[in-house]
Amino acid sequence: MQVRPRSPVVPAGNLASVRPDIDTGDTGSLSSGTSLPRVALLPPLARSAKPNEISLAEALIEDVAMGLCALKNVSVIAPHTAQRLRGDADWLAYLEHNHVQYILDTRISPEGLLLQLVFIPSDTMIWASREAFDIARLPEQRRHIAQMVVVHIARELERSEVFYADYVRHPKAYHFYLTGLNRLKNLTLTNILWAREAFQDALEQEANFAPALSGLSRTLSVEWLLQGRNDQMLLQAAERAARQAVQQNPISPNGHRELGVARLYQGDVDESVASLERSIELGPHYADGIYSLADSLIHASRPAEGIATIERALSLNFLPPDTYFWCAAGACFFLERYGEAISYIDRMKVSAPAARLAAAAWGMLGDLEKAALERDRVLQVTPDFDLETWLSAIPIKRGWQREMYRTGLKKAGF
C-alpha cells in the first residue's frame, strides 16, 4: 500500500503567529495584505573567513536591507527577523507561508562575497554575483548590491507576471507542488513516485498549473533513468507533460528544461540541447537548467563542454543535489578522468543511482573488486538489468562514447 505524501500546513499571516519567539521588527511588515514583492536579505554564512570580515559582511547586508526600505516598489523583511530565520531549520517554510517571494542568499569566504537572488515559489535563481570583499570599496559594493536586487526583482516581475500569478491564484495546487518538489530532492524510486502523486494532486486542483506539469515530467524522466529499462511510454508521457507546461507558460525556463531532458532520453540530442539552451536564455542563472544542459552536452559527445557547464552550475548551486555530482562524474568518465569521476560520485548523499557509472570507472581503473561491489549494488535494485538493452537505450551521439561505457561495464562484470 502506497502512503500518500502530505506536508503540515503552516498558517499564513505574520511570523509571530507561526513562531511567537521570532520578532518581526517593523521593516516591511509580514502581513499578507501588501501586494508589493517581498524580499528577505539573509545574513552571510561564513566559510573560512576572518571574524572581522564576517562582521563587516553582516553589517553590509543589513545596511543594504535598511537602504532598500526607502523604496516604494519592494517590501523588505526586517534584518532582525532575517538573522533569526537564518539559524532556523524551517526558515524557508516560514518565508513561503508569509508571502515572501525573494531571498538574497549570501556567503562570505576567502574568495569573496557570493550573492544569489532566488525567486522562492519556483526555486529559481534570477541573479548571482561574486564580489571581491574589499574594505576600501564597501560603500561602492553596498550601492551595487542594492541596485542589483531592485533591478532584478523588477525584471523578474515584468518577465514572469503570468508565472507568478499562477501561484497566487492556485494556493492549494502550489501547496501540493511544494510537497512534490521536496520529494524530488532524493533520487529514490519511492520518492519519485510520491513526488508524482503530489504533482498529480496539484493538477487535480488546477489542470493547467505549469509548475506541476514540469514536475510531473521530471518524475517520469527520472523514473526511466532509475529503472535502467528502455520504457518509451515513460518518456513519451514526460514529453507530453513538458510540452503542455511550455504551452501554458512559454516564458518559464522550467518547461523548456523538462522538454530538453525528455527529448534527450528519447535520443534526440540536438533538440534536447536546443530546448535547454532556450531554458537558460529565459533563466540565465537557473542552475538546474544549466546542469541539464551539461548533461545533454555530455550525451552529445561534448564532455569537455559538459564539465565546463556543470562547473558553472556548481558555482551557482554550491550545495547541489546529487544529480549535479552524477553529471560531473559522467563528464569526467568520458574525459578518461576516472578517479575524478569516482570522487564526484562519493560526494553524492545517495550514490546508488550512479552505481553503474562507478562500476565502469572502477573497471577502467582496473580495481575489479570495487567494480564488482558497485555492480552488485546495481543488481540489487534492478536484478533484471541487461547491459546491451541499457546501452541501446542510452542517448549517445558518437559511437566511441558507447563503446567506452561498454568496456568499463564489462570489466566490472556485467
Protein architecture, described:
The chain is of the alpha/beta class and 414 residues long. The chain is 61% helix and 8% strand. Strands 1, 2, 3, 4, 5 and 6 form a 6-stranded mixed sheet that branches. Helix 13 packs antiparallel against helix 14 and helix 17 (355-365) packs antiparallel against helix 18. Mean pLDDT is 80; it is low at 1-34.
Which descriptor suits the 3D outline? globular
> Radius of gyration over alpha carbons?
22 Å
Mean pLDDT value: 80
Put simply, the count of helices is 20
The count of DSSP E runs of length 2 or more, i.e. the number of strands, is 6
- Helix share of residues? 55-70%
Secondary structure class reads alpha/beta
Q: Kindly, what is the distance between the CA atoms of the first and last residues, rounded to a whole number of angstroms?
A: 33 Å
